[in-house]
Amino acid sequence: MEKNFIPRKPKHPCAYPGCTLLMDGRYCEKHAHQANSEYEKYGRDRNTKRRYGRAWKRIRDKYAAEHPFCELCFARGLIVPVEEIHHKLPLSEGGTHDRSNLIALCKSCHSQIHARRGDRWHDR
Fold first, then answer.
1. Do 64 and 33 have their domain in common?
2. Hey, which of 82, 100, 112, 117 would disulfide with 104, CB 3.0 to 4.6 Å?
3. Mean pLDDT of the chain
4. Which residues of 18-56 are buried (b: 16+ CB within 10 A; e: fewer)?
């Protein structure tokens, strides 16, 4: 009997300039941290940097430890690990880091929220 399976997408080179390692994701392990550091240093708006400092990291990590699954998926009966902590009311619109304004999400749910709002990838 032949088993049905879905073929994997072919690997592609790491997106970091000059790296030729073949990857499933965007960057290889070596360049993922470096690309993120460069984004934080040069790509992020100054006001955004101020709002997301060390205090936010502590709040985010504590909230993620207390809510280990995506809250939207969990409500639908799915167990999906948390990957993002999202502000229900964005900081740019007067939201705070208060726990009542936070929700634990997987990347898919987080991307869907921002896509519906139209506030992601608008300048790329």
1. no
2. 82
3. 84
4. eeeeebeeebbeebbeebeeeeeeeeeeeeeeebeeeee
Q: Is residue 48 part of a domain?
A: no
Q: Residue ranges of the chain with pLDDT lower than 50?
A: 122-124
Same domain assignment for residues 26 and 72: no
Residue 6 within a domain: no
The answer to whether residues 89 and 113 belong to one domain is: yes
- pTM summary value: 0.61
* Backbone torsions φ then ψ of 112, nearest 5 degrees: -65, -40
H-run or E-run covering 103: strand 102-105
**Tell me, what's the pLDDT at 124?**
41
Please identify which residue in the block is written with the tokens 């869907």. 112
